[in-house]
User: What shape does this take?
Amino acid sequence: MASLAFGQVDKIYKHSGEIIEGQIKRVGEFTVEYTYDGEDAIQSLSKYSVNKVFYGKSTRIEDVSDKIEITDDKDWGKVIILEDKSLVAGLKKGDDLKSKTGMINFRTGNGKDERAEKVLKQQAAEVRCPFILLLSDKMTGKSAKKTGSCYKYQ
Assistant: This one.
């Protein structure tokens, strides 16, 4: 409570509009770690869910990430594929997605993989999700299959 009285509480501003107050422990490469006042348990958020942080003691503001806006199906190129579950902490899970290239096509192995990725991103854009957590990525001789879950700001 004393830190609140002196204005030394840190604040995390999420892209969803939520503001979390506590003590920022670390802004890492992929996550923001913090504790709530009066608690020792370290909480973690994906940097993708955080707009900026405010350090109460120094009154410094640090920009963390830009919000990714998916406004229509054409924005599929903005969708980011993530491969680590920690990168979706603080985001809201949406639909599960599946993509598979056809067995009869004239694509190279790399082309099949790129096509499967593009289809996943297009599916995510249709439901306005800027992120996909990749759950499986399989290549066989004649096809590529990817599955994932889409995530959006809470």
